[in-house]
């Protein structure tokens, strides 16, 4: 059998904050692996520490204890090979769709013509062709999420981390976005870490699901999902899996 390459190893990560009320541990001794090319879902209840964990994995925040290994080597600080779709999207309001998407490339010093070409490619890939010159406020929530995804893909990250990207969308748009995201993932074959608190979404998207406990977040269980794609959300296998995970979940998420 083909040996899967580990892109990232998270080893015994703990994060403790010190605030007005004293020490507060958000995540506790979390260990997990991320394999090359996989669609990994991290599933956990609200406020369990998902964003804190992602920020540590991408190097935006420092852990209190434990280590991150990237391609087999210990990694500290910001990792330029990681792209993020943030929970709070933070699109630039006075920049158009195409200007938002090419921003990272501009910072990287790429010449205008080249970065426009790349931005156009990803805008089309996320289904926003024709909206290049719109401003974020002229777009729906789902369209803004698409801009965030295009922006993250445009910088060509080896690993893409998405923090509850569809959390605020209505059910219909959410299903559409899930399908479109899988199409992009199948085409681009980038390693994706997708965070959600929605069990159905996790079962629909993931090659594996890492289930976190309530705060402080610990790894409760790892579920490999071998259901064929595209998955049928009302098939018996799908509903059985959803029930198994639901029964093992700390809160009614
Ligand atoms: N900089 C900080 N200082 C103190 N406490 C923090 C800090 N950042 C996060 N926390 C706390 O850590 C806990 C986990 O926060 P986190 O944002 O990771 O949750 P989450 O799982 O992403 O939640 P949600 O599903 O609502 O996005 C929360 O109780 C939060 O208040
Ligand atoms: Mg969060």
Percentage of residues in DSSP E strands: 25-35%
User: What is the number of domains?
Assistant: 2
**CATH architecture label name of the largest domain:** 3-Layer(aba) Sandwich
Bound molecules: adenosine-5'-triphosphate, magnesium ion
Helical content (DSSP H or I, runs of 4+): 25-40%
What is the CATH topology assignment of the largest domain? Rossmann fold
Profile the largest sheet: 6 strands, mixed
Computed CA radius of gyration, to the nearest angstrom: 18 Å
Order of helices and strands: EEEHEEEHHHHEHEHEEH
- The CATH class of the largest domain is Alpha Beta
CATH superfamily membership of the largest domain: P-loop containing nucleotide triphosphate hydrolases
Q: Give the averaged pLDDT, no decimals.
A: 93
Tell me, briefly, the overall form.
globular
Q: What is the distance, rounded to the nearest whole angstrom, between the alpha carbons of the first and last residues?
A: 36 Å
Describe the structure.
There is one protein chain. By secondary structure, the chain is an alpha/beta fold. The chain has two domains: 1-81 and 159-253, P-loop containing nucleotide triphosphate hydrolases (Rossmann fold); 90-156, no CATH class. 33% of the residues lie in helices and 26% in strands. The chain is built from eight helices and ten strands. It has helices spanning 50-58, 97-101, 103-107, 112-125, 141-154, 171-188, 199-205, 236-247, and strands spanning 6-19, 22-35, 39-43, 65-70, 73-74, 82-85, 159-163, 191-196, 208-212, 219-224. The strands form two sheets. A six-stranded mixed sheet has the order 6-7-8-3-9-10, with helices on both faces. A four-stranded antiparallel sheet has the order 2-1-4-5, covered by helices on one side. Helix 6 (171-188) links the parallel strand 7 and strand 8. Helix 4 (112-125) packs across helix 5 and helix 7 packs across helix 8. The model has no long low-confidence stretch (mean pLDDT 93). Bound molecules: adenosine-5'-triphosphate and magnesium ion. Magnesium ion (MG) binds at residues 50-51, 87, 163-164.
